[in-house]
Structures are given as C-alpha cells and as structure tokens.
Automatic annotation (TrEMBL):
Keywords, comma-separated and alphabetical: Heme, Iron, Metal-binding, Monooxygenase, Oxidoreductase, Signal
Binding-site positions, heme: C476
Region of interest called Disordered, as start-end residue ranges on this chain: 190-218
PANTHER family: P450, PUTATIVE (EUROFUNG)-RELATED
UniProt record similarity statement: Belongs to the cytochrome P450 family.
Protein name (database record): Cytochrome P450
C-alpha cells in the first residue's frame, strides 16, 4: 500500500496536480453525511447534493467510508471522464453488483470488452428506421388520453396524477417495442377503474398470495417498479451494508425477491417465444422492414431482431430488461417535467401549442395531410426541440452519476487555491459528477440559469456543458 501511495504522490507531483477544496463533515468518514443521504425526505438534489457544490466549489472532495471522493460539475472534467480519458474510468463494481439480481449482465452494467460487445450487439437496433414507429406510439397515446378522462365543460378534465399515467404509457410502449407484446397496463388500469378485471399478464406471470406467501399479487408493471425502487434505494448505502438490507426478515427485500420472479418470468416467456420463432425462420432473415422491399411495413420488435443474432436466453432477457430500465422511467420523467413546466408557464404553453398547430395542422384529417407527423418532421420542429432541450437542462433525468478510476489518472481542472490546477485521481477512486448542478451554473448559462426559457436555445449549439444523455462512447443509445 505504501508503495502505491508513493507512486500516486509522485504521479500527482509530476503532473502539477493539486487537490480540490475539501468538504468537511462533522463525523469521521462523513457518517453524518451518509445518514442524511439515506434518510432525507425532502428534495435530495437541491437540499443535499447541489448545496454541497455551492458551498465548497463546483469541483470538490469529501472523505467517504471507502476513501476520498471527488465531485465535479465542471464541463472539462466531465468531458475527461466520459470521453478524453474514457479508458481511465469504469462504471465500477457497485453499479454492476447492485443491478445484477434484476438485470444480470448487459450494456448498462458492464465495462471493457463485455460492454463493447453489448454496444455493438444493440446499436444497430436503434437506427432511425427502427425507432420511428409512430403508429404503435399513437395507439398507446390514445389509451393515455382515455386514462386522463373526458374533457368536461370549460375544457378541463378531472384532476389526475400524470406521472402515474406516464409510467404506464412508457411501460406499454417500451414492452411492445422490446418484447413484441405490450403489457397494456393502461388498458388494465382503466378496466379496473371501470369495475372489470383484465389480467393482461396472464396467471403465469402473477404471484398469488397464499399462506406461505402472504404478500398481495403483483402484475409486471408493479413488479418492475418494485424491483427498481428497491435497487435505487439500496444504491444509497455503501455496498458492505447490503447483506443487512437483504436479510429475508426485511419485508422490502422479500417483496423485491417476489418482484424479481415476476419480472424474469415475464421476460423469459417472450424470449422463449422469440427463440422458437427464430429457429423456424430461414437463416439470415432479418430486418430491415419489408416496406423497403415493397410490401407493407412490418412492426419492428427488438427481441425478434436480436434473437436472429443469438440464441442465448439469458443474454436476450438481460439486455432487454436493461433497455427497459434505461428507457422507461427516463421518458416518463421527461414527459412529466414537460407537463409540469407547461402548466407553470402558460405563455410558453400557448406559444408551443400554436407552433405545433401551424407546423402540423390540427389532429383532425385532412388538416395534417400536408405535413404528417413523422419522426423527421418532429425532429425538425424547432420550438418543440428547444422546449425539450430546456426541460432536460433544468431537470436532467440522470442528475448525478459516478465512475471509478481504473488507474491513476488526471482531471484537468478544479485543483489548488484558484481551482485551476489539474487533480490527480487515484486508481480505484470514486468520482461523482452532477449534470444537474452543471446545467444550472450561472457562469455558464447566465444569471437567469434557474429560469425556464426555451428561447435560450435559439442559435445555441450545446457542448460539454449540456449532457442530459451523457457524452462520449457511452452516450445514450435511445436519445433520438
Ligand atoms: C429522456 C429520455 C432519456 C434520457 C434523459 C436518457 C439518459 C441516459 C443517460 C444519461 C445515459 C448514460 C448512463 C451512464 O452511462 O451511466 C443513458 C444510457 C443509455 N440509455 Fe438512455 N436516456 C433516455 C432514454 C432512453 C431510451 C428511450 C432508451 C432505449 C429505448 C435508452 C437506452 C439507453 C442505453 C441502452 C444506455 C446505455 C448506453 C451505454 O452504456 O453504452 N435511453 N441514457
């Protein structure tokens, strides 16, 4: 250890590195900080994370349970972590071990060669052809409007919790795109509310309550959310404490275990169907859609496309669940912030609405026949893209993230009394970064940084100071 320390010291010295400012906690190893992080009930971003950056510096460090942690919200440093020094950082064991029970191993939880393989395996499935299936999205949108309810006099619906509805909407669209069959959780919920009982997942996907298993049954939607919530919460604790959280006497853990069974049963069912059907197809049959071959456009199903490339059941299941995790909450979160901001900003709402109507016409045919709503038309609608960019600036879905150094390395700035010297990062050291803080820095975005102003995107090209989808080789595959 002392040889490693000496090596690190001389590495730091020879690269003119200086440490960034230190955030001092009251108790040793920042136990008070950890306790607050785990138990905080308020706004974890503003009241806990961002405040530490404002108090100590946009790049700073603190003493954690397993050593010193560097925190940064500096574009240059984040660019170094994600792109320029990509090979010097990895996701680290914590993220992999945390998600492994639910997601196994795949693009979202691997590093090095394994990640490269996953990325190459999945990337072709995100081409424009595959992701521009607006017809299936439209069907789920219609269900979303049904769930919101009828418009009464005065053009208002009843008060509804949109976030819940968006979670169902994104689950339904994502499962259809990934597995070929939608969970139709919106339809199931509507039917429940109207007194009917749709059991869309089928009895084999549900875990019934019994004397041995007193917890109520869960459908796939609940199971996936339950598993995800448990893992997000577990991630707040240092990993040596996880075995305590995972004791079977602990009821959230029991519920998590049940949820895992349901999620895996659901995914395995569709993987088995796809594998059987791929085995029957002639070799090398593959997407692209048959519209290019002159016939009607076939619906793209990611599982079917992947099952033509591999017959590994676990790999197919894990990769699809990983994409479901990456794509579902993120989209629901963006949607709900968008609507919250529209509600708070009536002038912006009116402007966006009239821009969309003047671009696409009303929803009623034949109005929109001249400029149908297509993927390309949506992308080139500037007021819409400025609006979305601004929502993701103020409310990036992944506000904080972290990486672990694979060997001694350097971040270009933030060290020393003037905060301009490079910082030495030790092999195995945790580096956290916050795009939430970066997206709100007044020195980058101006004094009005905290204000919601889609017009700030007029003529602005985003660089490393704007990273809602990450950057570098691991940039989000679903960003389009
Ligand atoms: C508003 C929507 C979304 C946001 C803000 C978002 C954001 C992100 C971010 C920040 C990462 C980097 C995570 C990290 O490296 O630690 C990421 C990765 C990823 N995202 Fe998204 N995402 C969104 C939607 C989607 C969708 C819809 C899909 C798929 C259908 C998707 C698939 C992925 C995948 C596969 C990765 C892993 C890439 C890799 O590690 O190589 N995302 N996303």
């Amino acid at each position: 250890k002392s040889r490693k320390n000496a090596k690190f010291k001389s590495f730091a010295l020879s690269n003119h590195c200086e440490p960034p400012p230190l955030q001092v906690d009251m108790l040793p190893y920042g136990i008070d900080r950890l306790a607050k992080f785990v138990t905080i009930k308020g706004d974890i971003l503003d009241d806990f994370i961002a405040i530490r950056y404002y108090d100590t510096g946009y790049t700073h460090r603190f003493s954690g349970v397993s050593g010193e942690v560097v925190c940064t919200s500096d574009p240059q440093n984040i660019q170094a972590i994600l792109a320029l020094r990509f090979a010097d950082f990895e996701l680290g064991a914590t993220r992999k071990e945390n998600f492994a029970p639910l997601l196994g191993s795949g693009i979202f939880t691997s590093d090095g060669l394994e990640w490269e393989h996953s990325r190459a395996f999945l990337r072709p499935q995100f081409s424009r052809e595959q992701i521009s299936d607006l017809e299936s999205a439209e069907r789920h949108i219609v269900n979303l409007f049904r769930a919101i309810g009828p418009v009464a006099e005065g053009m208002w619906t009843k008060e509804v919790d949109l976030l819940e509805l968006f979670y169902r909407f994104t689950l339904d669209t994502a499962t259809e795109f990934l597995f070929g069959e939608s969970t139709e959780s919106q339809v199931a919920e509507l039917s429940k509310k109207q007194g009917g009982g749709i059991d869309k997942d089928g009895p084999e996907n549900q875990l019934k309550s019994s004397p041995k298993n007193p917890e109520p049954e869960m459908d796939f939607a609940t199971a996936f959310t339950t598993a995800q919530d448990f893992l997000s919460w577990q991630l707040r604790f240092p990993s040596p404490l996880w075995p305590i959280i995972q004791l079977p006497i602990f009821s959230p853990y029991r519920r998590f275990s049940q949820a895992l069974t349901i999620v895996h049963r659901f995914a395995n069912k569709y993987v088995d169907i796809a594998l059987k059907s791929a085995a029957k197809k002639p070799a090398m049959a593959s997407f692209p859609p048959s519209s290019e071959k002159g016939g009607p456009r076939e619906r793209f199903v990611m599982l079917e496309a992947l099952a033509e490339k591999t017959q590994d059941r676990d790999q197919l299941r894990d990769q699809l669940l990983q994409i479901l995790l990456a794509g579902r909450d993120t989209t629901a979160s963006l949607l709900s912030w968008s609507f919250a901001l529209l509600a708070q900003n009536p002038a912006i709402f009116s402007h966006l609405r009239s821009s969309i109507l003047s671009t696409f016409g009303s929803a009623e045919p034949p109005d929109n026949s001249d400029n149908p709503i297509t993927f390309t038309a949506l992308k080139s609608c500037r007021p819409l893209s400025h609006f979305i960019s601004e929502v993701l600036r103020l409310y990036p879905v992944l506000p904080c993230n972290f990486r672990v150094a694979t060997h001694n390395t350097i971040l270009p700035t933030g060290g020393g009394p003037d905060g301009k010297s490079p910082i030495a990062i030790r092999e195995g050291q945790l580096v956290t970064y916050s795009v939430y803080v970066m997206h709100r820095r007044t020195d980058i975005w101006g004094e009005d940084a905290a204000e919601f102003k889609p017009e700030r995107w007029e003529g602005r090209k985003a660089g490393w100071e704007y990273l809602p989808f990450n950057g570098g080789p691991r940039i989000c595959l679903g960003r389009e």
